[in-house]
């Protein structure tokens, strides 16, 4: 069964979004991915864990935290 990984990531410019999407596409066993620029949210489904996705995003210098309805405020990178 596919996991759904939801993370909060600061998506402040098109270049950041391109880097994030490029990094996510390289993860093995993903089924779908989506970026919500209004919510600063990245959603990945597939045979992946939060830790895997966070590690990939850290490699492109993007901080990511587990999505929580309570963490709606932006954080700085």
From TrEMBL:
Pfam families: HMA (PF00403)
KW Methyltransferase (keyword) present: no
First and last residue of the signal peptide: none
Top-rank lineage group of the source organism: Eukaryota
InterPro entries: HMA_dom, HMA_dom_sf
Keywords: Metal-binding
Domain HMA as annotated: residue spans: 2-65
SUPFAM superfamilies assigned: HMA, heavy metal-associated domain
Name by which UniProt lists this protein: Protein SODIUM POTASSIUM ROOT DEFECTIVE 1
Provenance organism: Camelina sativa
Organism classification: Eukaryota, Viridiplantae, Streptophyta, Embryophyta, Tracheophyta
Gene name linked to the record: LOC104734541
């Amino acid at each position: 069964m596919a996991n759904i990984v939801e993370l909060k990531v600061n998506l402040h410019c098109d270049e950041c979004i391109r880097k994030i999407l490029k990094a996510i596409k390289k993860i093995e066993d993903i089924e779908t991915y989506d970026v919500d620029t209004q919510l600063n949210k990245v959603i990945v489904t597939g045979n992946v864990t939060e830790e895997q996705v966070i590690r990939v995003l850290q490699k492109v210098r993007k901080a990511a935290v587990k999505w929580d309805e309570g963490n709606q405020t932006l954080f700085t990178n």
